[in-house]
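Bumping with the actual sequence this time:
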Amino acid sequence: MGKNYVDIEDDRGETLRYRKHVNGRGLIANGAKVHASAVVEAGAYIEPGVQIAAGAHVGRGVWIENDVVIGPKAEIAPHAHIGAGARVGAGAKIGIRTYVGENALVAGGSLIGDDQTIAAGERVATDRRGLRLAA
């Protein structure tokens, strides 16, 4: 039986330890909190300080940077990138290869399509069809 963690050296030469999440085998850094009912697929990286709520789903190849909060039942599609300090509300859906910038906010229930970019600090709310609502 293999070990349940991986050590990875960062750009500064420091070693970070990631454990494999029970649901999906994605890599969770020490200091991140992922609810047991959340799914983090293999190939996803969750950095320190991240909080992922119950029922959330993080696809393969997703990178979630430091101090991000993912709300309950949010869905992050494969190969998306969530910047440091961003917030993704309950039930929001982030599309494939979409980038959510640092400290951005995606409101609960929003639908962000594939290959989109949410700028750093931007606040986004959409209806169920993905049409942006007035701020």
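The tokens above came from a reply further down the thread. The chain has one domain: 5-124.
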